[in-house]
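Quick start: what a row looks like.
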Amino acid sequence: MAVSSYPNLVANLVAACPESELYDALVERSVEYFTAKARLGDARTREDPRILQFETDVAGRYRDLEAKISEVNLILGKHKSPMPLLPITQEGIDTLVGEIIGDLFQGRRK
């Protein structure tokens, strides 16, 4: 089993903001982004004429996810004992999304 790049994600988010549903919102945005990227990949494989539409959808979902990550990072950074921030690079975000999706398939929270 691979080592998580973002251990204790749920615990950190709950500790930073117990009344919030940050993790659920982060998962929702991650799934939307992952789904959009999967559709784009499929469209490219089939040379679907809607590739530009799918690329636009991926870009929009990515911006939504970036906004949610920024919100989460603000909360994590202001916690009384600062917690590790989530990634803000494309590669880091893709890794985070991959881990969240993998955990969903395994039936566990990050």
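That is the whole record. The chain has one domain: 21-106. The chain has a mean pLDDT of 87.
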